[in-house]
Amino acid sequence: MEVFVDAVLVASSIALFCYWFRYSCLLILSAETAHDYSREVARANQLSFPEVRSRLRKRDVADLDCLHKCLERDFAILEGLLEHAPIAGCYVGFEDVMLKILFRSMGVCFHLTRGSWREFASDALREMSLVVVHLANQWGERSFESASPSF
Questions:
Q1: What are phi and psi of 146, to 5 degrees?
Q2: d(Cα 33, Cα 64) in Å, to the nearest integer?
Q3: Which residue, 95, 105, 127, is CA-closest to 24?
Q4: Is the pLDDT of residue 143 over 90?
């Protein structure tokens, strides 16, 4: 009986942690900034997430694997920009780490559901695209702040 209670406590703790983690990430992603730099960053770095998001809105996407590869490529580029070309005074914070974990976990969800549950796979791609948009906007904000004179 004691083992059963321990198992229930561990399982419920893991479930609550996962709920908290996803809810926190969605709160981070829903925060709006004064200016959205994501389109400018996409154009400047030849990123494809605006097209991917447009195709995902149509709900009848034939090639989800291609969209997934595009998002993975965009994520890798933005991750490189944010980590390997840091702007003075900027650092990788806890929120960034959380969003990277969310991106990777949604990638796993995509791979698990792309064959049987295409709607769930599309939802995973939508969430991955939100992370990419957020990172692009973050890079744009950091670039703009470093370019503008401080008073």
A1: -75, -25
A2: 30
A3: 95
A4: no
Residue of 26, 46, 48, 45 lying closest to 99 (CA atoms): 26
Token pair for 143: 């670039």
Cα separation, 54 vs 24, in Å, equals 25
From the list 140, 113, 116, the residue with the least C-alpha distance to 128 is 113
Sole residue written with tokens 């995509």: 110
Distant-in-sequence, close-in-space partners of 40: CB < 8 Å, separation ≥ 6? 140
Inter-residue contact 35 to 137 (CB < 8 Å): no
Which residues lie below 8 Å from residue 24, measured CB to CB, with a gap of 6+?
A: 98
Q: Where are the domains of the chain?
A: 34-147
What pTM value is reported for the model?
A: 0.84
Q: What per-residue confidence (pLDDT) applies to 148? A: 53
